[in-house]
Design brief:
By secondary structure, the protein is an all-alpha fold. It has three domains: 58 residues; 60 residues, no CATH class; 72 residues, no CATH class.
Length: 245
């Protein structure tokens, strides 16, 4: 049985990575051999022939793939693929592209509204217009974006950015964003200094989650912040936790 190993390919340009994985998927060589081969060969000619001229979109998609599994059964590979697709709303594909375009539009509107408020915010509550794609989708349910919670139409804007930093920017202005950043950064620095890896990871996960949600209204966020600050405020308790972990 071969030894288990983890191979890191970064730093590698997306073009090189796409070339390596395209070759890897079509040859019996291991990912390590494919990466080493591509490092010494020019990827421009390959991409020109098979991507720009032939239009093989799957090659471009490989430029974003950074995890490979080898030496597993086809059944296991299928399960892994289904699991990754299940982590995206709509299972990836067109639904994910529609969701991406919708988020970009909403985030741009949030930035515009925040700037229009003079960086002071517009107060608590939603302040964004319902996106045109949702309005059009309600007229034609076939083209309506999926996996989106639709607010009711009203006389005033009632949509949110679904991004903690942008929602705070719209509602509380720049001072709210800076306060949130200071709170999270303080807790993160304290857990790092106390060498509490689990709590540091928890904060990093919440920060990533905040990109797609307004987490300040979730009790779990304040519980996590309180736990980090309370634990690191007592060095003896932090040391005891670090030893037990």
């Amino acid at each position: 049985m071969s030894a288990k190993r983890v191979l890191t390919v970064a730093p590698m340009p997306p073009e090189k990575l796409a070339y390596a994985l395209a070759r890897y998927s079509r040859s019996p060589d291991s990912i390590k051999d494919s990466v080493e081969w591509v490092r010494t060969h020019d990827s421009a000619k390959f991409l020109e022939s098979f991507y720009f001229q032939y239009g093989h979109a799957s090659i471009a998609d490989l430029g974003h793939v950074t995890v490979c599994f080898e030496g597993i059964s086809e059944l296991a590979a299928t399960e892994i693929e289904d699991f990754i697709k299940g982590m995206t709303k709509g299972g990836g594909g067109r639904d994910t592209e529609e969701m991406t375009r919708l988020r970009i539009h909403i985030w741009n509107e949030a930035m515009r509204r925040g700037v229009e408020s003079g960086l002071l915010g517009l107060g608590p509550g939603p302040h964004l217009e319902i996106p045109p794609s949702i309005v059009a989708g309600r007229r034609d349910s076939i083209n309506e974006p999926k996996h989106v919670e639709h607010p009711e139409f009203g006389l005033v804007p009632n949509f949110e950015a679904h991004n903690t930093f942008l929602d705070l920017f719209v509602q509380g202005g720049l001072i709210a964003v800076l306060s949130f950043g200071w709170l999270v950064a303080t807790a993160l620095i304290m857990t790092q200094r106390a060498e509490l890896d689990a709590l540091t990871t928890l904060l990093c996960g919440l920060t990533i989650f905040s990109i797609f949600h307004l987490i300040v209204r979730h009790p779990i966020f304040w519980f996590a912040i309180s736990l980090c600050l309370a634990t690191t405020a007592h060095p003896r308790s932090a040391a005891a936790i670090r030893v037990r972990s």
